[in-house]
Amino acid sequence: MTVYAYLRVSTEEQDYENQRYGIIKYCEYRDIKISKEYVDEGVSGTVNYKKRNLGKLLRVLKKGDYVIVSELSRLSRSMIDMYSLAKIFADKEVRVFCLKENLELGNTAIGLMIMTVFAFSAQIERERISERTREALAKRKSEGMKLGRPVGSKNNIYKLTGKEKFIFDMMVQKVSKRKIARKCGVSVITLNRFLVRKDFSIKNFL
Hints:
By secondary structure, the protein is of the alpha/beta class. Helices cover 47% and strands 12% of the residues. It has 7 helices and 5 strands; from the N terminus they run βαβαβαββαααα.
């Protein structure tokens, strides 16, 4: 049996450390070891699984393997995709455990049905939230309020904003990016994006 962890966050301002922590604690309690984790960062759950790292995970799964996620919605927020995923897990005889829902789904028709029902409920809720958001925005617009940032402006505030000096000091000390990211509470991917976005180099601090 090979155990895989799958983690996903929708925006680059988020990080998946909380998901990882919960999964690690669960594995410690069950005395099992994660062989590999697959991560999708800054990717919406509505994006088809084939276009995510989740698709790569599905290709390596074998009979008897185990997939752990923090919650079912990490896999997908699309009812159609969730049904496809459930069928793949069932066909491959892979077990899936979802921490938040406290669900352990085996390769059965019941497991497939449960995943589909949860996805259906999540999709309905998402559509309700979208509708309420559209109504609120329409109301504000009708009242003459300007919505969004000015045309051409960019978001200059990110999760690591204000930590440039700390990051620079760590880099001077030749601390690995993985350790720097961990100390900052973000993923290595988020750290790398921040460094590129800020054109980070020693000249910034001379």
